[in-house]
Amino acid sequence: MTLYLRHSWKDERLAFLSRSNVSRTFGGCLVKKTWVPDVFFAHSKRFFIHDTTMENIMIRVYPDGSILYSVRITGTALYSIDFRTVHYN
Within 13 Å and on the Cβ side, how many CA atoms surround 47? Predict the structure, then answer.
């Protein structure tokens, strides 16, 4: 599957003054210098971050320190299905 993982949190250390209350958007270079919560996929076999031409990572910081993090990832997950309990119509 390929998906955009987006999550948000608040880090008041990144708050800044803004007269217009406009957010600031940054690419992968700032993400590497910013604390990001650990996220994992249970039962995953393989996941990778897209980096064709450039990393597909974005971080948006709002004046109050709220953060929106977005990354494009592709992965393979391991799911076990018991076909004895699957009912077909």
Answer: 16
